[in-house]
TrEMBL record:
The gene is pncA. Keywords: Hydrolase, Metal-binding, Pyridine nucleotide biosynthesis. Its EC number is 3.5.1.19. This is Nicotinamidase. One of its GO terms (molecular function) is nicotinamidase activity.
Amino acid sequence: MRALLLIDIQNDFLPGGSLAVPGGEEILPLVNALQPTYELVVATQDWHPATHQSFASQHPGRGPFEQIDLHGLRQTLWPDHCVQTTSGAEFSAALDQHRIEAIFRKGTNPEIDSYSGFFDNGHRKSTGLADYLRGRGVREVHLAGLAADFCVNFSALDALREGFEVVFLQEATRAISPDGYAQARQELQRRGARFGAR
Ligand code: VGL
Ligand code: ZN
């Protein structure tokens, strides 16, 4: 069976948010229209403590979008975003939530970032999402949400690694960087992800 994964459709990634993805709000009508066509809808939620080390604010002298080494991993520094229990971390009020059966939170460990809904960026800890999906009989995962070049991309890569068929719903995502997205797309296609509408 097929599941729809809604990645990080949260206020901070939408207009007025601290890390707004260009055009992010444009996906909402499509995401809502798609949901009833899937047997299972699952969401991820970026959920950082205020001291998360991916925040530029935690590194004096550094600014957002600079790169640093964080415990051996390359880390892009971000504006503070999706801080636990703040309105920026909430799902968009325009997102229909009534069909979402489970929410997987990520990015809770302040020392490591977590773009994928399946694992942290070092693949050290699983969120349990892959086992949950398998337990529900899912074989095919369709992805939508924000941002195409970060959390949707890394979730798609991990879904492939976990052996799921992967469909990247490109009309239902938007990217932070067009170049980053073009590269991500090539790699995903090389690994067998399909792109397009459902
Ligand atoms: C994301 C950057 C930092 C995303 C999350 O959801 O794509 N990007 N945290
Ligand atoms: Zn984040």
